[in-house]
Amino acid sequence: MKLNIALLAGDGIGPEVIDQAVKVVNAVANKFNHEVNWTSALTGAAAIDAVGEPYPDETHEVCMAADAVLFGAIGHPRFDNDPKAKVRPEQGLLKMRQKLGLFANVRPTFTFPSLIDNSPLKRERIEGTDLVILRELTGGIYFGERGRKDDGNTAFDTCTYTRAEIQRLAKLGFEMAMSRSKKLCCVDKANVLESSRLWRETVQDMEKDYPEVEVSYEFVDAVAMRLVQWPSSYDVIITENLFGDILTDEASVISGSMGLMPSSSIGLHTSLFEPIHGSYPQAAGKDIANPLATVLSAAMMFEDGFGLKEEAELIRSVVNKSLAEGIVTEDLSGKDKKAYKTSEVGDWLAANI
Ligand code: IPM
Ligand code: MN
Predict the structure, then answer these.
(1) What SUPFAM superfamilies does the record tag this protein with (predicted)?
(2) The pLDDT of residue 48
(3) Is the pLDDT of residue 113 over 90?
């Protein structure tokens, strides 16, 4: 099969972790006789520095022409403490989500048997955790009307959702629940917010089309609590953009390191695959960041982007093997064990494919 992949390394550790995923994808392609055609393009602070824009039109064209986008990370600290900065790397990410129509962000959380004790939570609480948060990604407060009034002394951001936006996300959630354990949890704040009441009403209306799926409705504050108490009680969670942003960061550390969890964003035009973690600027250029979240995102790309399940399974099994054999970066090695470099982990994975 011919695989046309747009490669957006981005900022911070992005380029380093992306390099390892490229090694692994090339090794898999070689083994299964696929032809990979990589096209690199600029995003984030790197693009601002080069062309003054975090998601340039040329980059958008590269993404539109690709079968899938593999993405590193975006963000640079020099923008974070400058509230008046005119362009920010993150704007590139939002523009990209909007222009590619990436309406559903799939963020799984699962545990690795060899890493159970790396989790900040107790073993008995997290064993068996295998959940997916489906975060709506192109609506809500991220894209609502915002501004200042009262001579700049009042600021507002608005959260708007249409029934159609909720339906297309919820449809994916129901379908995903059908292919897993038939449990769906709709997370909202319907005791306060009108937009949440529309979410609940819309999902309730859809229940009759999926009679086998057991649906629960929970408030986001309660879910934030239950996710650390009994994460294994959840299967598929659907939620709006901002709640999903917060809950997926919370869920991502359950596995033991921020550097482990992959994600995909399902789009109207093309789909995008990226690690859940950010650009980790403190580690940039040091060859110490954990590349596994990006490598596992490449596995999601094979399975969900190209429908190549065997290739995805091979990547996952090699990742499991690396963890079991202690071929890990410093976030996982612990004090007394050897920490491998980012590039060494990538080389090891590619060699074991
Ligand atoms: C994420 C990030 C982004 C978001 C930021 C960088 C704009 O936190 O992908 O979760 O808030 O969506
Ligand atoms: Mn986030």
Answers:
(1) Isocitrate/Isopropylmalate dehydrogenase-like
(2) 95
(3) no
All CATH 3.40.718.10 domain ranges of the chain, comma separated, are 1-110+260-353, 120-254
Q: Which two tokens stand for residue 341?
A: 């470099």
Catalytic residue, chosen from 67, 249, 304, 347, is: 249
Q: Is the pLDDT of residue 351 over 90?
A: yes
107 is in an annotated binding site: yes
ipTM of the complex: 0.99
Is 83 a residue whose pLDDT tops 90?
Answer: no
Judge whether 189 counts as a catalytic residue.
yes
Question: Which listed residue (11, 188, 235, 245) is catalytic?
Answer: 245
CATH code of the domain made up of 120-254: 3.40.718.10
Q: Give the separation between CA 172 and CA 192, rounded to whole angstroms.
A: 26
User: pTM of the prediction?
Assistant: 0.94
Judged by DSSP in three states, 106 sits in strand
88 labeled binding residue: no
Q: Is the dihedral of CA 219, 224, 229, 231 positive or negative?
A: positive
Residues making up the chain, counted from first to last: 353
The values of phi and psi at residue 19, to 5°, are -55, -40
Which residue's alpha carbon is at the smallest distance from atom 7 of ligand 1? 90
Residue 217 bears catalytic tag? no
